[in-house]
Amino acid sequence: MAEYTPTQGKYLSFIVAYIDGYGLAPAESDIAEALQVSAPSVNAMVRKLESMGWITREKGVPRSIDIPNPIPDLPKWRGPMPGREVSFYAHKSATPAQLRAISDSIRPERPRSVPRASKLDMGDGKIYQLKITLLETKPPVWRRIETPSVSLAKLHVMIQVAMGWQDCHLHEFQVGDRRFTQSAEDSPFGGFDDGEDADDENEITLAELHSQKIKKFRYWYDFGDSW
User: Fold this and answer.
1) Cα–Cα distance, 207 to 5 (Å, whole number)
2) I want to staple 105 with a disulfide (CB 3.0 to 4.6 A). Which of 16, 46, 64, 138 is the partner?
3) How many other C-beta atoms can be found within 10 angstroms of the C-beta atom of residue 160?
4) Over the stretch 50-71, which tens digit does the pLDDT of each residue have?
């Protein structure tokens, strides 16, 4: 395998740091933002690194960059990272194809941060399809995801990734007259968003909502701008 140049090393260093930090592959726009280069330059470099064998990609699949082998003597990335504070939680029964339906290409073998396990059994073997529509948008802005049964805590992270948000505001789920949000110990905002009349979003799953014949519920993100 050919040695990489200092410039190529910067690209590789960022890609490794991004995957290790976020648990998913960077988009070319993430690379362009971090290295302050043009999109065509990133595309050309990615194709070059792929031809050299340092990275692999799935044809036609965004966010599919992977590092197949350890890279010797790679300097640690010390530049800026994109303003994303998201993690992805993969259920052990999900296939790579199902995970890509959530956010193009996810690395299920590298979850970075998992909240405490739900007390409920999530392994019902079913795949749930959800259509997420941003209210009051014309034309409608929406995403469709497929996932095994997961807790609402994990669904929150999937929504953040699918919508391209940064997970830097408060959020809650509104299911009928019930509210679900982060507990104080899970919230990056401390106890600020653990409303007294809200339940812990770790403690209910899509399977349970389905068993209650609940077909629609609301997800409220950013209590100021109300997404």
Assistant:
1) 50
2) 64
3) 23
4) 999 999 998 777 788 999 998 9
